[in-house]
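We close this part of the discussion by returning to an individual protein. In the encoding step, the backbone of a single protein was reduced to a row of integers, each denoting a local shape. The sequence in question and its structure tokens are set out directly beneath this paragraph.
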Amino acid sequence: MRSIPTGLFLLLAFLARNASAQMVTTAGTTLAIDAGTSLRVETPLTWSIADGATVVNNGTIVLGPEADLQEALGAPITGGGTERTTRTLAGPLNAEAPGGLGLAITTDAALGTTTVVRGHLSHTDTSDAVSIARWYRVLPANNSGLNAMLGFGYDATELNGITELGQVVHIATSGDTVWSPLSSSVLPVASTVNAGPVDSLGHFTTFEGEVPMDIGAAHAAGALPYLVPTVATDRVFLHLPEGMRISRIEVIAMDGRMLQRITGDLHAQAGGTPIDIDRLPPGRYVLRLDGRTTLDLIKR
């Protein structure tokens, strides 16, 4: 296997701008992006990952406004990191898939400046159902009254034991442990699950069948971690269920950067675990617990 250093990869991307406007990761090539590092493709081109190539992303891949990804079936990017792109989307949209990341959006509305993030780790809901190893998060400037339909693209290698035809798209309603099912239909020939309509966009994945959603009962029973408050200026408190222990809290910006980390033997305590956010700039963030569970936070 041939391994390409990320620095050389970026040089190849620059050269591709003056060639065929296409960059190919060929069969037998391995490209790895380490945790905590970013690879930016700002050149207007299509990055094609061939069958038999391996791209492992444990950091962040950023696709510029004119860069697109094209993955062969059976050769999707893997790893614990994310791929993302930010585009200005004026409506109407007809199966618009920003950056070639695999999520197609159809709506008559103009979304404005929109960030689409894709990841490759599975989620576990409160009933212990496990999703496929792919998720999307969509953050549009306009996020209400969309009446949007989705085409959730996946690769068969990501099914994670789930029956392909049994997939149902879900939208997260609290962190990444409570999910609400959407009306869905699977098109296996296209490796797509069509779903919707949805009034607003957010965090999506697929589970086998519809998972139960009972956030009120789960919180009342102390079964879910949660933040108080979720909108704050200087400090929030993380409440963990009895018996749950974690060793790492990370504060993640919407561009994938980790801005803060708290480590130790963290467990349920009266009043919750305090997390100081006074040094963060105003904006939206994600608290990631032990690299899996995520909770949304807004800093004013």
